[in-house]
Amino acid sequence: MPAMREQAERPARRSDAGSELARGDRLPNFVLPDRFGEGVMIYESVQGLPLIVLLHRAVGRASDRVLLERLDAAVAGRAHLFAVSPEPAEAQRGLAAQATLLVDATGRIGEQLRAGAVRGGAGVAPDAPMILVADPNQRLLGVLPGGDATAVVGEVRRLLEAPAPRVGAGKVWRAAPALIVPDVLDEAACARLIALWEGGHDEGKVAAMVDGQRVDRINYGTKRRLDHAISDPGISRDLARTVSRRVGPELAKAFHLQAFRFEPFIVMAYDAERRDFFRPHRDNHIPDLAGRRFALTLNLNTGDYEGGDLRFPEYGPEVYAPPAGGALLFSCSLLHEALPVTRGRRYAVLSFLRTDGVTGRPGA
């Protein structure tokens, strides 16, 4: 999913403006214009890699420039690097090619982040750069004061390359907050839904905001998929009743979601010959989609294809593959991707669960 583009600067989103920033804290989200004047939202720019935010005062200063360029070379392809400076865009032209250079014209974002880190115990001189290093889930691994570029780069590498904790064989130490529910649909129901797709389908589209309006359009750089939107009200009603009866109690137990409604169901297919995929994205990233609470993916033919599994890169490299007839449910705020199918064709049913306008039982 490309970075969200907005013209206005927006402050870090944090419920408590006086909060500390130290290891384990979540890096606040914020929007700043890049050197071309387009707004970049941090959480919409990350794609499952660690995150480094360099807060510096003057990119024209030789030491700041060297630090930025050394960091850029050291983490290229391994982390997202954002350099935040109050200097105007003109002063940042010709700098490190891989880093995203952001203009904090008022200095407000940088000062808020710097103050939080100082409250969290970071020691840094007022004019010195500060480096915030976060994991793929935007949780801080460390806050480093600027200084000798070689030493700083070495410490950043140490944080990024820290080994996984030793917890013992068979023990889980990380997992995405996703729910797998088997036996939602039987084999015959899966076959009927696949037949619907085979009767007609279209290229899947991606929702985006253009001039303040939602636009659904084909974007092969983000997604390749073939979709059949279920239009028969009887089929939709029967599917909603069955699915809600079987996933509703699990959602209530696991996530306290008591009532919801479905968006229209889609039978989708990812095909190996087309190398279909869906790159990392969130399902509620624009205002028109903000009412979505959970995504539902219901596999129809697990075992008949290779690849195509879902991954939540903020939570690790593990992939999630419900059995045929089984559902995977997760918050629409989670970054996720459908990996390319390498053999065969993966069929699944997709919908989104919303709570706005709900007055009846689950799935109504």
Keywords:
Glutaredoxin, 8-stranded antiparallel β-sheet, 22% helix, 364 residues, disordered N terminus, Jelly Rolls, 29% strand
Walk me through this protein's architecture.
The chain is an alpha+beta fold and 364 residues long. The protein has 2 domains: 10-160, Glutaredoxin (3-Layer(aba) Sandwich), CATH 3.40.30.10; 179-354, q2cbj1_9rhob like domain (Jelly Rolls), CATH 2.60.120.620. It has 7 helices and 25 strands. It has helices at 42-45, 62-75, 89-92, 108-119, 149-160, 187-198, 233-255, and strands spanning 10-13, 29-33, 39-41, 51-55, 80-85, 100-103, 130-134, 140-145, 179-181, 202-203, 206-210, 213-217, 223-224, 226-229, 261-262, 266-271, 277-281, 292-299, 306-307, 310-311, 319-320, 327-331, 336-338, 341-343, 345-354. The strands form 6 sheets. Strands 9, 10, 14, 15, 16, 18, 22 and 25 form an 8-stranded antiparallel β-sheet that branches. Strand 4 (51-55), helix 2 (62-75) and strand 5 form a beta-alpha-beta unit. The radius of gyration is 23 Å and the shape is elongated.
Radius of gyration from the alpha-carbon trace, in angstroms: 23 Å
Report the β-strand fraction as a percent range.
Answer: 25-35%
The general outline is elongated
Distance between the termini: 31 Å
Uncertain segments of ≥5 residues (pLDDT<50)? 1-17
Mean pLDDT across all residues, rounded?
88
CATH architecture descriptor of the largest domain: Sandwich
CATH level-4 homologous superfamily of the largest domain: q2cbj1_9rhob like domain
Number of domains: 2
How many DSSP E strands? 25
What is the helix content? 10-25%
| Number of helical stretches of at least 4 residues | 7
